[in-house]
Amino acid sequence: MSDAYCTDCKKETELVVDHSAGDTLCSECGLVLESHSIDETSEWRTFANESSNADPNRVGGPTNPLLADSALTTVIAKTNGSSGDFLSNSLGRWQNRNANPERGLIQAFKTIATMSDRLGLVGTIKDRANEIFKRLEDQKSTRGRNQDALLAACLYISCRQEDKPRTIKEICSVANGATKKEMGRAKDFIVKTLGLETGHSVEMGAIHAGDFMKRFCSNLGMSHQAVRAAEEAVKKSEEFDIRRSPISIAAVVIYIITQLSDDKKPLKDIAIATGVAEGTIRNSYKDLYPHLQKIAPSWYAKEEDLKNLSSP
User: Fold this and answer.
1) Cβ distance 216 to 250 under 8 Å?
2) What's the pLDDT tens digit per position in 164-212?
3) Global pTM?
4) Per-residue CA distances from 190 to 171, 221, 229, 238, 253 (Å)
5) What are phi and psi of 133, to 5 degrees?
6) CA gyration radius for the chain?
């Protein structure tokens, strides 16, 4: 039960919902506050391994504000048996060809949803990526361009705007064959197109090395103490003018912290987990080496431990 204001009782009272009648009543005076309400929850439970081909649902899918005819379309079902009804089969074929003008948009949304699920992204990121692609589609800007690269770039921009950035390599790993170069071009095209539409530059959100730290450490199976030390070290590294990308800084900080622990990680494993080349990590290590005593947490590593680290 939930609380709501009752006009008869003149106060907040508990509500009782009569699901069979669709009425919402005041628990104290019995006044019907809402009648004939629609239950939007699932009508039936369906299972993938059921042998029957019959779909017990009598309602459409969830509404999508980005689709004009969302959840209002009619689907002509296929008839059972090999003979079938000629008229029904003919109407079904005609519908598949002409009925849904937004078929391409629906397929694009499905592709974005698949990529989001494979990366473990939250629904808000997926929805924003759908919105970005819909704005491009409304401007007829997607014709003649690499669709896979555009969808991957929409998801990359969405992650940046929601402050949950992913690397270009991570996005490309779930894209349908789009390369880093193609995705980079698509990203620049989207930013330029949306900037012309709104009249101002598209805000992408700044990337910090700390944004990647927990995920990279998790990929390497680091201990909680090591993860905490890496997060502190990467925050201190921002105080220095280290002209490296945030991803490279995150990778080299993880390398330093693991070398100071008993569970040392090979450079090759760190390169695989972070997507940063081994040579780039070595060069970044040269830049951070002079600041080791200020970057490494004192509770995690003593001065003697820092001196034992190999010099670049």
Assistant:
1) yes
2) 899 988 999 998 888 999 999 999 999 988 887 777 777 777 888 988 9
3) 0.69
4) 16, 36, 38, 30, 33
5) -65, -35
6) 28
